[in-house]
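We modelled the chain as a single entity of 139 amino acids. Its sequence is:
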Amino acid sequence: MRIEMAVVGLIVVAVVVLGELDVIPNGWVAPQSSEETRLNIAVVVLTIVGIPLAIRLFTLNTTKGLRRMNNDEALASYHIWSVVRLGILCIAAVSGVIVYYLATSVSAVFCSLIALAAIIYCWPSETKIASYLEEVNNE
């Protein structure tokens, strides 16, 4: 799972590099236009809805579902829902970076940084996973 999180970080860095190389057109959207406003609103809503949704989906699907599984099945399910959570957070981070380059909007960068912080918050460790599985199995 750590490798998958590192890949998401590399994807975000690759999008930044594409923006810096002008592959993603910089300033394509006119400043203070209605299109810029719509893009900013879309990124902010995606971030505000996506982060809690990703965390809540993970919690709901792992807490209730893992109780009926053995450890191998529980680990597989945990991994699948971790990937789903990571995918939602990756979409929020990448879209923030893309909107930043298209509209040169600082709020999009803040949304991207918030999504990246949520990815760091979800960083797995063996002790976290083991204690989580033990807690679920004891319920």
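As a brief sanity check on the tokenised model: The two ends are 25 Å apart (CA to CA). Residues 74 and 133 are 8 Å apart (CA to CA).
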